[in-house]
Design goal:
It contains five helices and nine strands, in the order ββαβαβαβαβαβββ. By secondary structure, the protein is of the alpha/beta class. α4 packs parallel to α5. The chain is globular, with a radius of gyration of 15 Å.
Length: about 190
């Protein structure tokens, strides 16, 4: 599903405690929530890693990935979203779900990553805006500024025409797939 200027939409939670819930998505230019088909594949991949995981959702947008992880009993989620309206909608959706184990930060993801973290995250979602060249820098900051647990799982979603940039040497690809205009992959830190 795509949400463009002048349109609003919704994301659907596929499984878990909030199964089939639909949440509104703010109409932000360029926001393109992960489709249900891709999300189903990704969460089949992530099933062994989610229980009690601390999740980090960079460029959170609709929050669909975090909401799905939390619905499937991830322990917590930190959602970082630069657009103020989208961040406010994320906060409202968390309230609708009565979810108290997630936090929304209305800031630029790279700025937050540069600051480092006292908490390490087990599952990280990276779905940056298309054609902004943010992926490589994002991955470098995650690795160098103490954001990742020792064997963290990193989900990456990018435009399919993009050649995968240089990722940290200690990340290995577990799975990858392309669906239409989107390429998505699962990586593990070692």
């Amino acid at each position: 599903m795509s949400v463009g200027k002048g349109r609003s939409g919704q994301v659907r939670i596929i499984a878990g405690q909030w199964r089939s819930r639909k949440l509104p998505v703010n109409n932000v230019e360029g926001l393109r929530p992960t489709t249900d088909r891709v999300k189903e594949t990704v969460f089949n991949w992530l099933a062994p890693y989610l229980d009690s995981a601390h999740c980090l959702d960079l460029f959170a947008g609709s929050g669909g990935l975090s909401f799905e992880a939390l619905s499937r009993y991830a322990k917590s989620a930190l959602l970082i979203e630069k657009d103020r309206g989208a961040a406010q909608q994320l906060q409202a959706n968390l309230a609708t779900l009565k979810c108290n184990n997630a936090t929304v930060k209305n800031k630029d993801s790279l700025t937050i990553l540069e600051q480092g973290s006292e908490q390490s995250f087990d599952v990280v979602f990276i779905d940056p805006p298309f054609r902004k060249n943010l992926l490589e820098k994002t991955c470098q900051l995650l690795e160098s500024n103490s954001w990742l647990s020792d064997d963290a799982i990193i989900y990456i979603e990018v435009e399919s025409e993009l050649a995968m940039p240089q990722l940290p040497n200690n990340w290995r690809c577990l799975k990858e797939k392309t669906a239409g205009q989107v390429s998505f992959s699962l990586w593990q830190r070692s």
